[in-house]
Amino acid sequence: MIQPQSAPNTKSTNDINWGIIAPGKIAQKFATALQGVNGAALYSVASRDLSRAHAFADQFGFETVAADYDALISDPKVDVIYIASPHTFHTEQSIACLAGAKPVLCEKPMSINAKQAQSVFTAAKDNKTFYMEAVWTRFMPMLAKVREIIDSGRIGEIQTAQASFGIDVPFSPQHRLYEPKLAGGALLDVGIYTITFAQWLMQTPPEQITAAAQLGTTGVDERTAVILRYPEGQLLTLNSAINSKSNHEAWIFGSKGRIKMSAFWQCQEIALYPDGADGEQEIIKIPHRINGYEGEIEEVNRCLRAGKIESEIFPWSESLTVMQIMDEARRQIGLRYDCED
Fold this sequence. Notes:
CATH architecture of the largest domain: 2-Layer Sandwich
Shape: globular
Largest sheet: 8 strands, mixed
Distance between the termini: 46 Å
Low-confidence stretches: 1-9
Radius of gyration: 20 Å
CATH topology of the largest domain: Dihydrodipicolinate Reductase, domain 2
Oligomer: single chain
Order of helices and strands: EHEHEHEHEHEHEHEEEEEEEHH
């Protein structure tokens, strides 16, 4: 059971002032977490629609509203910017923030392809400014618990794993998930969670990538399957969809046992079978303190206070590997976006 949200913090002079670009649905969840994170201040919001920014600021208690994105970036009181716009704007907006020496937490996927991702990392390095992709899953306490179980040897050596993330969104050519101009499709929106899971689990790039997909009438991938083969022969099967709901589970199969991660992308409960198929299951629950977004916020705050430009928990190299895997999967299924030209 998710615990009640903490009350908003009283602002102090040591708080890190957060700004938000694009106050949409995911930004609402993010702002809810910001309200309960010690040392994080809800400072400013920017939107293409100024009235929308004001409504968002009033709803969550932000101090001010920026006239536009440039005003947010140039505001000396803004310490870090969370980018929550559609996929196709991530690269340009991230680089603009970094060029203005503003640290960035950018919603996934951080870019459309690996080339764009590398340009963001170059900007962060050149400007000596912090950057991290916002994959909230990577900072949930349950992942640390699963890693502890794996490292303890309770399920033996990893042999195979699978993850599924399918949602059922009614078709509309104007919906962002079906719109190629917004880099819609299953892989970049929900498939990224399955691939990030695979890379977190294996901690090394795959040696073979095999992908298949069903492309819809608008040209985006409505269903995609990816198989990753790793150097020691482990096989990971990953499925994603935007028009077919799945169970959202991930399974890790070892030589001695297995782990089921329920709703793996926001995991709060696992079932551990340490003695193989006939063993008794052990249920482990670790609920979110707020709503799950608090972990990535706290990691950014930690890194900024330590003067880092990159998180060692979720480094640039991991984001880049995920983008490279998705690039190859899209090459195989024949999916390219106009904005890549």
